[in-house]
Amino acid sequence: MNRLELTGLTTRPAQVWGGVRLVPLVREQPVEGLRLHEELYLDAVPGVVDLGPREHYVSVIPHGFVADWSGEGEQSAAYGTQLGAPAGSPAGDRPPRTARLQRHRHHRMAKRQPGDRLRFLPLHLALEGYLALHFGGPSTAWEEWSRQALRDGLSPRAEDAYLGWTVQGLDDALRAFEIHPGQCGVMVYAADVLAAAFVVPHPDDYRLLHPSLLQDLYGELIHQYAMYGGPVAEFAARISDGARLRTLAELRSAARRQELEWERAHDTLFARELLDSSYSFDQVYRMGSFTLWRFLPPFRPGGEGQHIGETITDHKGRVSYLKTFRLSEAQIRRGHLLHRLADADWRLAGAAAALNTTEAEVRRRIRAAGFESLLKVRP
After folding, report:
1. 10, 60, 112, 205 - which has most CB atoms within 10 Å?
2. Rounded Cα gap, residues 13 and 180, in angstroms
3. Which of 164, 151, 82, 167 is nearest to 123 (CA)?
4. With left for phi above 0 and alpha for psi between -120 and 50, is residue 71 left, alpha or beta?
5. What is residue 88's predicted lDDT score, i.e. its pLDDT?
6. Which of 127, 118, 163 has the alpha carbon at shortest distance from 51?
């Protein structure tokens, strides 16, 4: 398994609000045996997640998802569960504009609950996987690396993200457009750059989780594109009059052809960077016939956009749940640099050869990536 398989999901014509484009994803049949619910954490203060001895993850964590494969359906769900201060109280005010994501206890990334249920932290699961990339640092005490690098590795490591309600136009777009019958997901674009993909197993789950996109995290690039980018073109289907359009059935058939043309254009142009890329998948939890994964891209600098995320797949590898986060070019370069260093066993000479550059340039890239503390200070 190295790709995302969206079998069973159909693209519907885009909905446009200013610079935000929403592309609905519809299922003909819901995924059987899996439901998704939400827990809200309204304290809006950084939550700390225990990852293991001396490893922690700190971030603003506004909500969690509960995957339920018990087969009991909505009768077992506690929709809209709220943990924390009630809305309107000082602690229930809006969260800060940005969230600093850093590896540094109150949650666990994925925690089994009574019955066949698993609570996990959407997007944070994927972001922790990115932040953990070669987190241990040098494995051998080569002379280039500092004592801190050998003792602590990349701790602490941090990235910035924007909360969804600060992405200009997203709130209005989610509120303005009706949800399609059978809709189980959406792809969100800002200035026609893919910001995020969100998929759930059942239409009822999507109706309840649709507003949760405002509680998700988005990269700085997406925030800037939504704020400074101009309005994008709306979807418009033009059906030429002719001899083949004499009945309502013929008109309906022509409209359907236009929808299919949009679907092909979207999947081959707009969403290509997500669907045509290869990923490395890390299994997080097995849930009966379903599996929760998080995934990382190949970290190729200078190409198309790349995404990290998490997904739940069935026994055939088909996506039942999906949530993604678009990396910035700087984040892609950091991932690429860490891969090359690790592949070279953290020898700068080997990394320089793999990158077709000099050791001095590798040092410069390490400093530019924010990893200067790893290097030994030269007199």
Report:
1. 205
2. 11
3. 164
4. left
5. 44
6. 127
- DSSP class per residue in 286-299: EETTEEEEEEE---
What is the pLDDT at residue 307? 96
Helix (H) or strand (E) holding 335, with range, is helix 329-343
* Closest among 121, 294, 325 to 221, alpha carbons compared: 325
User: Could you give the CA distance from residue 16 to residue 169 in angstroms, rounded to a whole number?
Assistant: 10
d(CA 331, CA 2): 21
Tell me which H or E stretch contains 83.
Answer: strand 81-83
Q: Please report the pLDDT score of residue 154 as a whole number.
A: 85
Question: What confidence tens digit (pLDDT) does each residue in 170-219 have?
Answer: 999 999 999 999 999 999 999 999 999 999 999 999 999 999 999 999 99
Which of 227, 226, 212 has the alpha carbon at shortest distance from 323? 212
Rounded to whole angstroms, how far apart are CA atoms 141 and 151?
Answer: 10
Distances 316 to 7, 257, 290, 293, 351 between C-alpha atoms, Å: 10, 30, 9, 14, 38
Residue 325 confidence (pLDDT)? 96
Tell me the two tokens of residue 91.
Answer: 């602690």
Residue 253: helix, strand or coil by DSSP? helix
pTM as predicted: 0.85
Sites in the chain below the pLDDT cut of 50:
75-105, 379
Residue 228 is inside which H or E element, if any? helix 220-228
- What's the CA gap between 287 and 233, in Å, rounded? 42
Instruction: Give the pLDDT of residue 104.
Output: 38
Residue given tokens 């910001």 in the structure block: 195
Please tell me the predicted confidence (pLDDT) of residue 377. 63
pLDDT of residue 70: 86
Copy the structure tokens of residue 358.
Answer: 């000099």
**Residue (of 244, 196, 182) closest to 21 by Cα position:** 196
